[in-house]
Specification:
The structure is a homodimer of 157-residue chains. By secondary structure, chain A is α+β, with helices and mostly antiparallel strands. Helix content of chain A is 42%, strand content 17%. The first copy, chain A, folds into 2 domains: 87 residues, Winged helix-like DNA-binding domain superfamily/Winged helix DNA-binding domain (Arc Repressor Mutant, subunit A, Orthogonal Bundle); 47 residues, Ferric-uptake regulator, C-terminal dimerisarion domain (Dna Ligase, domain 1), CATH 3.30.1490.190. In chain A, the strands form 2 sheets. In chain A, strands 1-3-2 form a 3-stranded antiparallel sheet. In chain A, strands 5-4-7 form a 3-stranded mixed sheet. At the A-B interface, helix 5, strand 6 and strand 7 of A face helix 5, strand 6 and strand 7 of B. The first copy, chain A, binds a DNA duplex (30 and 30 nucleotides) through helix 4.
Chain lengths: 157, 157
DNA sequence: GTTCCTGTTGCAACCCTATTGCACTAACGT
DNA sequence: ACGTTAGTGCAATAGGGTTGCAACAGGAAC
């Protein structure tokens, strides 16, 4: 990993990592190299939805000494702080994404890909559901399953 | 279990059990006492959402020799035939309900109670989602999580 | 009624995701 | 530098479900 030649212009990812770590510290938590690596990996993930296991594997490339249970515990801590959301996709592992990136989820039951849906679309219906049932809906965690365009019957492979 | 004194007027549950078993037979399957017990228990469940484990326990009261894996395999078979739907509630076990009883689900993340929502309400939004994303949504399996009225913060216990 | 083919079952072992108890380590306020 | 205490690695455990295999049993054909 080559560091930027312009330390006075930190990469946005680095700034975001430190911002989250600061939250963690402000919450009475401690900053360890493992946690820094986990947060960095979380932020630099291309797809915004990572499972705990994927994250552990990625982190362990550079930090083989970071245990899977540490990843789980760190994710728990970050979720408890509201920094990220844990989305349970039904089958298989849960996925995590940053909480500031709010949306609903469509997940393909065959290829397990996740498509994000703007929260606006479901808003009015959710309001109506809440009024009818007295539920307080968990809007960032809404998951609707189905078959994505490529997995629909009639499509090749 | 006392049988009806009027065998010419079978109880509705019995008729429904045999109807499902007939489907199973028509599909090339065989009818066993275990399967009959499982289907009967499924149909006489008061709440329409049973987990595989609950079902196994109920069946084993009268049929202790019916194994858990048999329950899973029978439920799989019935689901494959479209007789029932398996709903994955996120955390904890999946629940099953009859497919002819279509609805969406709100599930409380605290007490795990399930409230049914008429399919009509979400229909238009689902159409829109499908058009936008190319997904073919799994309408009977829609689950939205949240806190039910009794578990909302500020309520007693 | 018997036979035979094949679907079904019980059992135990296993998989996957996640959690936990415990002894040890290390962050960070002082 | 030190002490407190949060965080960590490790191994064991839990929950929910699946699977390989040998034995068993529907039920169509005779």
């Amino acid at each position: 990993m080559i560091e930027s030649p312009h330390p006075s212009q930190p990469r946005p990812v680095d700034a975001a990592v430190e911002a989250i770590l600061d939250e963690l510290r402000a919450d009475g938590g401690r900053i360890t190299s493992g946690r820094r690596a986990i947060v960095r990996s979380l932020l630099s993930a291309d797809d915004h939805h990572v499972t705990a296991d994927e994250l552990a594997s990625r982190v362990q490339v550079d930090h083989p000494d970071v245990n899977r249970s540490t990843v789980y515990r760190t994710l728990d801590a970050l979720e408890a702080m509201g920094v990220l959301s844990r989305i349970s996709l039904g089958t298989g592992g849960a996925v995590y994404h940053l909480a500031d990136h709010a949306h609903h989820h469509l997940v393909c039951t065959r290829c397990r890909s996740v498509v994000e849906v703007q929260p606006g679309l479901l808003g009015p219906v959710m309001d109506q559901l809440e009024a009818q049932t007295g539920f307080s809906l968990d809007r960032p965690h809404v998951v609707i399953s189905g078959l994505c365009a490529s997995c629909r019957p009639g499509k090749p492979s």
